[in-house]
Amino acid sequence: MQENNLTEVSEFFLLGFQGSQKLRMFLFSLLLAAYNGTICGNLLIIALVSTSKNLHTPMYFFISQLSITDIVLPTDIVPNIFHILLNNGATITFFNCMAQLYFFLIAGASECLLLTVMSYDRYVAICKPLHYVSIMTDTLCMKLVVTFWLLSFSFSFIYILMILGLKFCGPNIIDHLFCDLVALQDIACSDTFLIKLQIYLLSIPFVGVPNLIIIISYVNIVRAILQIPSNISRQKAFSTCSSHLTVVSIFYLSLSSVYILPKSGQTSDVNKILSLLYTVFTPLINPIIYSFRNKDIKKAVKQKIQKYL
C-alpha cells in the first residue's frame, strides 16, 4: 500500500454481496429498475413543481427539494454498487471513498432537516390556517432551504475531517456496499472512541432535534384535527399531512434499522439489504407516495399530458 499524509491505506475493497452470479445479476436488475424509477419519478416532481402554477406553494416547493435529495443519495451510491455486483467486489480509492461518504452524509442530513421543515409547514397549515400565508412566505421558505443545505454541507465536512483523523493501516476490506461511516470506523486501526463520541454529539442537531420538532408538530396537528367537529373536515385535514407522515415513518424506520437497532444476530448481508432500503428504495417510494396520494400532482400531470397531446 502507498503511504500518504492521511493514511497508510490508499484504497479500499468493497465486498458487496459475495453470492452466486445469478443472485448478483438479480440484484443488479432490481437495483437498475429501482434507480431508473427513482430518477424519473423525482425529476417528474421537480419539473411539475417548477412549471405548474397550482403547485407554486411552500409544501410543493419543499417536496421538490426532497426530490433533489432523493436523486443525490442513490446517484452517489448505486452506480458503484452496479460495478461491485458485476465484478463480485471492487476497489475504491481513498479519495473517492471520502467523496462518496461526503455526499452520502449531505443527502442524509438534508433529508432529516427537510422533513423537519415540512412537518412545521404542515403544523402551520393545520393549526394556524388563517396565518399560513403570512407565516410561510416565499422569503422564509427560501431562507429555510438555504439554511438546511448550508448546514448539511458544513456538518458533513466536519464528519469527513473526523474520519480523516483516523488511521487505516489494514486490512482495507470493507464488508459493505459503499463507504459508510460505521464501516470505516470498524476497520480503522486507531482508537475510535473519541470519534464516535464526537459523531454522536454532532448527530444531535440532525437526529435528536429534528425528531423532537416532528413529534411536537404532529402532537399539535393531531390535537387540532381531533377538535374539528366535522368528520369530513377531519379527514381532509389529515390527508394534507398523511403523505409527509408516511415518508417520515419510512425514512426513520429504515435509518433506525441500520444505525440504532442492535446488530447481535444480524448478518452482514442483512445489514446491506437494510442499507439499500434508505439509500435506494426510500427515494423510490417518496415520489410514488406524493404522486399517487396527491390530487394536485395528478391534476398537474393530466394538464401536461393534455397540453402536449
Plain-language structure description:
The chain has helices spanning 21-51, 58-87, 94-127, 132-135, 138-164, 181-187, 193-226, 231-259, 268-292, 295-308; strands at 11-14, 90-93, 173-174. With 309 residues, the protein is mainly alpha-helical. A 3-stranded mixed β-sheet has the order 2-1-3. The longest helix is centred in the middle third of the chain and has 34 residues, at 94-127. The chain is globular. It starts with 10 loop residues before the first strand and ends with a helix.
Mean pLDDT: 84
Structural class: mainly alpha
The radius of gyration computed from the alpha-carbon positions, rounded to a whole number of angstroms, is: 21 Å
Main sheet specs: 3 strands, mixed
List low-confidence stretches: 1-7
